Amino acid sequence: MNIKIYPDPILLKSSSEIKNIDKGLIDLINSMVNTMREAEGIGLAAPQVGVLKRVFVCQDFSDESKETFLTMINPKIIDTEGRVESKEGCLSIPGYYDYVYRAEKIQIEALDINGKSKTYLTDGMQSIVFQHEYDHLDGILFPYRMSQIKRDIFMKKINREFK
Ligand SMILES: [Zn+2]
Predict the structure, then answer these.
(1) Around ion ligand 1, which residues have CB less than 5 A away?
(2) Residue 60 lies in domain
(3) Spacing, Cα 43 to ligand 1 middle (Å)
(4) In this structure, is residue 2 part of a structural domain?
(5) Per-10-residue mean pLDDT for the chain, 163 residues long?
(6) Comparing C-alpha atoms, which of 112, 73, 98 is closest to residue 151?
(7) Which of 28, 57, 77, 103 lies in the 20 to 30 Å Cα band around 141?
(8) What is the dihedral of CA 141, 3, 39, 43, to 10 degrees?
(9) Distance, CA of 117 to CA of 17 (rounded, Å)
C-alpha cells in the first residue's frame, strides 16, 4: 500500500467506526502491518493508506523482540493523566521530527482482530504511539500538538517542502 503524504486531504478527515470485522478488514490490517514494517514505522493508521476507518496498528512495546503488533479497532481513550513532551515524526510527513505535548499516561480501549475488547493502561512510548495514531483517526497530525508558535514555524517549513 502507498502511504499518503502531507498535504493529502484524506489525512485531515475523520474516520468512521467499524461495524464488522470481516475479511476485507482483516486483509486491510495485514496490508497495513506489512506497509508499516517496510517503512520501518512503529505505527500506522488506516487514513494514512487512504482508508477512512477507525483502525490502527502499532508496535507492541511490551515485546522486546519488536515483532509483535497491536491492532486497535474503534479505539477509545478513556482517561489521561499528566503531560510530557515527546519528539515525534510521522510516515506521512517524512523527514521531519519535532517535540509535541502528549498525555503521560492513558487508558485506552479497543477491539482486537478477533473482536475482543481490550483495555490498555500505558505510559512511555506505547502511550505516545497510541495517542499519535489515535489522532490520525480524527484527522489530526502531530504538529497540531505543538504550541501555537512552534506549530506556525513547523507548518511553514513543511508547506514549503511538500506541495
Ligand atoms: Zn503519523
Answers:
(1) 90
(2) 9-161
(3) 7
(4) no
(5) 97 98 98 97 98 98 90 98 97 97 98 97 98 98 96 96 91
(6) 98
(7) 28
(8) 40
(9) 15
